[in-house]
Specification:
This protein is an alpha+beta fold and 269 residues long. It has two domains: 2-144, Jelly Rolls (Sandwich); 149-237, Winged helix-like DNA-binding domain superfamily/Winged helix DNA-binding domain (Arc Repressor Mutant, subunit A, Orthogonal Bundle). Helix content is 31%, strand content 24%. The strands form two sheets. Strands 1, 2, 3, 4, 5, 6 and 7 form a seven-stranded antiparallel beta sheet that branches. Strands 8-9-11-10 form a four-stranded antiparallel beta sheet.
C-alpha cells in the first residue's frame, strides 16, 4: 500500500458530485489509500475488504473466470469499480477467478475513510454506483457479442468496443495499444485461439484490421454500422467470393508457449 492520495485529484471526474464551493476543500480533505499494481498476477483481497470496493485509477487489469474447461475474460481500466473476493459464479457453480495486471497502475482503496466523504457529498456514492452499472452494461454487451455467429464479426465488434474506451484516433485509423494476444481475444469473445488467428488474418486481408509490430491493433475505417447476426457473408451477398468462416470446425487449441493467456506491458524504466 502506498501513501494516501486525494481521491478527487486522483479521479477528477468524481468532482462532479461536489458543489463548486466545496471543491477546493474536497481535494484537500478527501484522502484515500492507494495500492500499486505491478504487472503480473494480482489478488484484490490483498487490499482487504473495503466497503466501497477498489477504484482503478491507472493501468489495465484482466479478470479471468474459469468454469471447468471453459473460461471467459473481462478487461478493466481507469474508472472501473470492483469488489475484492467472492465466488466467481455463486455457490452453485465451481467457478474460479484469476486477476492479472496487464499494464502497471494504481487502485484507490475505498475503505472506511470514504464514510465522511460520502456523508458530506452523497452523490459520490451515486457516481460510483453508476460506474459499476456501466461495467455491468459492458459485460452484457460482451455477452451478446459472444453469441454472434461469425468469429471475425465477434473479433471486430470487441475491438471496437475496447477502442471506444482506450483507442486513439490517428490518420491511419484508431489505434488500440492495449496488449491483447489472440488468446486474450479468444477468451473475451468465447472462441478458440486458432479461430481468432484465422479471423484476424481474414480481417487484415479485407483491410479493416492491422496489427503493428509493437503489438498494437489498428482499426481501419469507420466502426461497423451493424453486425452480421445471421452469419451471412457480406462479400457473398454482393456477388463476390465468400470469406472463410472461422470457428465452424475448430481444431483443438494448438500448443503456443509464446502466447500466454495475457500479454503484459512492463512499467517504464
Amino acid at each position: 500500500m502506498s501513501a494516501a492520495v486525494s481521491l478527487f485529484e486522483a479521479d477528477p471526474e468524481l468532482l462532479a458530485a461536489v458543489p463548486s464551493r466545496d471543491r477546493e476543500l474536497a481535494c484537500r480533505g478527501a484522502v484515500v489509500a492507494v495500492q500499486r499494481l505491478p504487472v503480473g498476477t494480482w489478488d484484490p483481497v490483498s487490499a482487504g475488504a473495503p466497503a466501497w470496493g477498489l477504484l482503478v485509477l491507472e493501468g489495465l487489469l484482466a479478470r479471468d473466470v474459469d468454469l471447468g474447461a471453459a473460461g471467459a475474460a473481462e478487461l478493466l481500466g481507469p474508472g472501473d469499480v470492483l469488489l475484492p473476493g467472492g465466488p466467481a459464479a455463486g455457490d452453485a457453480l465451481p467457478g474460479t477467478v484469476r486477476w492479472s495486471v496487464l499494464e502497471p497502475g494504481r487502485a484507490a482503496v475505498l475503505d472506511d475513510r470514504m464514510a465522511p466523504i460520502v456523508q458530506r457529498w452523497p452523490l459520490v456514492s451515486a457516481l460510483l454506483a453508476q460506474r459499476a452499472a456501466r461495467r455491468a452494461d459492458r459485460l452484457a454487451l460482451s455477452r451478446a457479442v459472444s453469441h454472434l455467429t461469425r468469429v471475425d464479426t465477434r473479433v471486430l465488434a470487441t475491438l471496437w468496443q475496447l477502442a471506444e474506451r482506450w483507442g486513439r484516433v490517428t490518420p491511419g485509423g484508431v489505434v488500440l495499444s492495449t496488449p491483447l494476444t489472440h488468446r486474450t481475444i479468444a477468451r473475451l469473445i468465447g472462441a478458440r485461439r486458432p479461430s481468432v488467428t484465422s479471423a484476424t488474418t481474414d480481417l487484415a486481408r479485407r483491410g479493416v484490421l492491422e496489427r503493428r509490430g509493437d503489438g498494437a491493433w489498428v482499426l481501419c475505417g469507420p466502426p461497423p454500422e451493424g453486425v452480421d447476426v445471421a452469419g451471412a457473408d457480406p462479400g457473398a451477398a454482393a456477388g463476390g467470393p465468400a470469406a472463410p468462416r472461422p470457428g465452424a470446425d475448430d481444431p483443438p487449441p494448438d500448443p503456443d508457449p509464446g502466447d500466454g493467456a495475457f500479454a503484459t506491458r512492463p512499467a517504464p524504466a
